[in-house]
Amino acid sequence: MxxxxxxxxxxxxxxVVKDAERLAAFSTTTVLIxxxxxxxxxxxxxxxxxxxxxxxxxxxxxxxxxxxxALLESELxxxxxxxxxxxISSQCGIIEEAKGGTLFLDEVSVLGEKAQSVLMxxxxxxxxxxxxxxxxxxxxxxxxxxxxxxxxAIVASGTFRRDxxxxxxxxxxxxxxxNERPGxxxxxxxxxxxxxxxxxxxxxxKITSEAMSELENYSWPGNIxxxxxxxxxxxxxxxxxxxxxxxxxxxxxxxxxxxxxxxASTYGGLLRDRQFLMQFVQTWSHTNGHxxxxxxxxxxxxxxxxxxxxxxxxxxxxxxISRSS
Length: 325
Known about the structure:
Elements: E1 2-3, E2 6-7, H1 11-24, E3 31-34, H2 41-51, E4 59-63, H3 69-77, E5 78-79, E6 91-92, H4 94-97, E7 102-106, H5 113-125, E8 127-128, E9 137-138, E10 142-147, H6 151-157, H7 162-168, E11 171-174, H8 185-199, E12 206-207, H9 209-217, H10 223-238, E13 242-243, H11 245-253, H12 255-264, H13 274-286, H14 291-298, H15 302-311
């Protein structure tokens, strides 16, 4: 299943989506979504909204970590003209914007004590009044909250209200990290490689089986967000060419390899061969900067190994010393 940017091919994620779609039909039920950063909590929330009876209404997102607590009531409920210094006109709040649809509260675990009280009051009554005006307004909206933290542990620590926690926890969904849903990695890669090629209006790249295997076996600690960013980098680097194992390794090694690659580009010979460069850097790392062992493993002379390591600046990356024996 690939729909609305939501990928669920792996059985673990299929179960999550099945539960989400079952909940979608109960369009007034509050839902709490938990999962690591980058697992796709907002995408799942939007999918619940889209397939629910509220699908034609607005889907409004509030990142709770970006709103200072002093401004939260105004952001949520809106304000009337003159309610405070700088309020030069009346303005509806985020909750009113979501009327008839879904309000998605991301990173709800960071809310302070006052904000928690304000939110709990709204969930209980579904009534608001704009700051500076006592008139109550009834708002029909579904609340979906999300956090990358273990909210029950935060409740136990005393920093999150237990009563609010139970109001949010009417229905609960947990999204597994990407390394626990490996069946989704390939379709996600294919989806985003296609997406970024279209976005940047360049030719679609080809990917070798070895490169795909490396990407499927990578742990993806940043989850889908990391994969999404990686695929854009691949598309830009290859620009209609071939995504090979060497470029995948460059991504996995990260910025350090990028610096090494830039240095290598100023030299000729083997250092201009990306595959050899990748092998050299990996072997150097595996031998802990041992020149003789690196040379033996790669089938090159000790002098060449020493010269390459100096050219790439690797002598300073392992205890500051190149070991020759």
